[in-house]
Amino acid sequence: MQGAQEKVDKRKASVARLSVISNTTLMLLKLAVGLAIGSVSVISEAIHSGMDLLAAIIALFAVKISGKPADSHHPFGHGKVENISGTVEALLIFLAAIWIIYEAIKKLLNPQPLEEVGWGVAVMLVSAIVNIIVSRMLFKVGRETDSVALQADAWHLRTDVYTSAGVMTGLGIIWLGGILFPGANLDWVDPVAAIFVALLIIKAAYKLTLESARDLVDVSLPLEEENEISRIIAS
Description:
By secondary structure, the chain is an all-alpha fold. It has helices at about 1-35, 40-65, 80-110, 115-145, 150-180, 190-215, 225-235.
C-alpha cells in the first residue's frame, strides 16, 4: 500500500515539475518578445505565465506536503495543504489581473505603434500549444490522483491557452491591418486584448477560489448526496 502511494506521489511531483519548467520558459520568452515589440498584451501574458509559474511552484510544494502520512499533529493527513495552495494561487491571479487592466488602460489612453508584430503572434501560438499539452497532463494526473493543486494548476494553464489565443488574434488583426490598410490606426487593439486577458483571468480566479476554499470552510454536501448517505446508513 505504501509503495503504491509513493508511486502516486512521485507521479504528481513529476508532472508538477514539468509545469514549473514549461511556465518558466514561456514567461521568459513572452517577456522578451513583449518588451522587444512594445506590446502590453504580450507583456500581460508574460505576467500571466509568471503567475502560472508561481502557482506551479506552490502546487509542487503542496503535492509533496499533502503526500505525507497522518501524524500526531495532523491525524487526518495533510491533504488540505492543496486547498490552501489553490486559494493562494487564486488570490495572486486576482492581483495580476488588476495590474494588467491598469497598464492596459494607460496604454489605451496613450497608444503607441508596435514593431515586428509577427513575433508576438508566433510566441502566443507556441505558448498555446505548449500549455494545451501540459494542462492535459496535469488534468489527467490531477483527476486520477484526486489532487486539487494539480487540477488548479491545470486550470491556470488552460486559461492561458484561451488568453494566448485572444492576444494572438488581436496581434493578428494589427499585423494584417497594417498590410491591407496601411493608414489604419489599430494600436488600440493591443491594450484592448490585454484587458480581455485580464477579464478571463478574473473569471478563472473566481472559480478557483470557490473550488479551493470550499473544503477549507467545510461546506456541506449537496442535499441529494446527504439524503443518499442517510439512506445507506439507515439500510
